[in-house]
Design goal:
This protein folds into three domains: about 60 residues, no CATH class; about 80 residues, no CATH class; about 150 residues, Intergrase catalytic core (hpI Integrase, Chain A), CATH 1.10.443.10. Helix content is about 50%, strand content about 10%. Strand 5 and strand 6 form a beta hairpin. The chain is elongated and about 100 Å long.
């Protein structure tokens, strides 16, 4: 078994024995001239560090018996292993996250030798994305038994604080559409406004997703695998009729990477002086419009997804709704009731 390095070592200055912290370099007197007494005091200072390290080394030895690679596995290998479990656009996100420069601090570090401080340092130098994905890789290593114990307990990870996203306004959307010369991109932005779906779901829509008999637009959300069945209104029908009548509705955009579609949209916003807006803002706009129109929350959840942050935020506080008086509501309901006509005897 590899000999563990002591935290403190002793030395003599004149006739008095001193000790020095091997990690910090801090020195202090043991206040004795006797070598035997100095050794006893040094053992007392080292024991709290050696005993946990000793048990940890035993645990590593047992784990190495079942998994010889555990003492050599680096964080880069953990990154790669988790990426291989993903598919499609989700895999692309993980691959992009694994290239985060903040991770360079631990990329070549052995997993079982990593300290919690090392992970905290990485998150301090990184972004919100670093925090989100690092904990996923850490938890993956724990689940795979590549870590003896979690380095950071579940409740001790830094809080993930996303920047507040806003909805794109009608005026901003109108400016973008009016300036757009490419018919396919123009129709793409229009459809995002009408249905509030994610950019990938909209870009990959096909004619087969349209049920003209029942007047519904049907598709499965890529991210959550939830089924969406949305009624087609007059404006949406007009837009869909103008798109290709076979195959993909957006043949070019369907083949463009998600990040490239986002960059193209950002460039158009920048040219118009529109800031803090992304393609994802169409989802927030749709949710806030639904809330303002008195659209039932359960319908909004069916349209955007039950776990959609856009729905939760809009229906919690963002959109303003004028509550009608109960008197007016009751009157309106009474007027809608059609009295039954008495049956006429034969």
């Amino acid at each position: 078994m590899k000999k563990m390095k002591s935290m403190y070592r002793k030395f003599r200055r004149g006739n008095v024995w001193y000790c020095q912290n091997n990690k910090t370099g801090v020195q202090e007197s043991l206040k004795t001239k006797d070598r035997t007494e100095a050794n006893r005091l040094l053992d007392i200072k080292n024991d709290p560090f050696l005993i946990p390290a000793f048990h940890l080394q035993i645990a590593r030895t047992h784990m190495q018996m079942g998994n010889p690679e555990i003492n050599n596995r680096t964080w880069q290998q953990v990154f790669d292993a988790l990426v291989r479990t993903k598919e499609g656009t989700n895999r692309v996100r993980y691959e992009r996250a694994a290239k985060d420069k903040a991770l360079d601090e631990i990329r070549k570090a052995v997993v079982v030798e990593t300290t919690p401080e090392a992970l905290f340092d990485v998150m301090a130098k990184g972004t919100v994305c670093t925090n989100v994905y690092l904990r996923r890789w850490h938890n993956f290593a724990v689940d795979m038994n590549w870590l003896v114990l979690p380095l950071i307990p579940k409740g001790r990870w830094p809080t993930v604080k996303h920047e507040e996203k806003r909805a794109i306004t009608w005026d901003e959307h109108k400016c973008i559409v009016e300036r757009e010369k490419n018919p396919e991109r123009k129709a793409f932005y229009e459809l995002c406004w009408h249905i509030g779906a994610s950019q990938s779901d909209v870009a990959n829509l096909k004619v087969d997703n349209i049920d003209w008999k029942n007047r519904t637009l049907n598709f499965v959300r890529k991210k959550t695998k939830e089924h969406v069945h949305m009624s087609i209104g007059p404006e949406l029908e007009k837009l869909l009729r103008a798109l290709p009548q076979s195959g993909l509705l957006f043949p070019y955009l369907a083949g463009v990477r998600e990040c490239d579609r986002a960059t193209e949209f950002k460039q158009r916003c920048k040219g118009l002086g529109i800031s803090e807006v992304t393609l994802h803002c169409y989802r927030y706009a749709w949710a806030e419009r639904a809330r303002e129109a008195g659209y039932p929350e359960r319908f909004a959840q069916e349209a955007l997804g039950h776990g959609s942050k856009a729905v939760h935020r809009a229906y919690a506080k963002k959109a303003l709704v004028k509550v009608p008086s109960l008197e007016e509501w009751e009157k309106e309901m009474r007027e809608k009731v059609v009295p039954l006509q008495p049956a006429i005897a034969a």
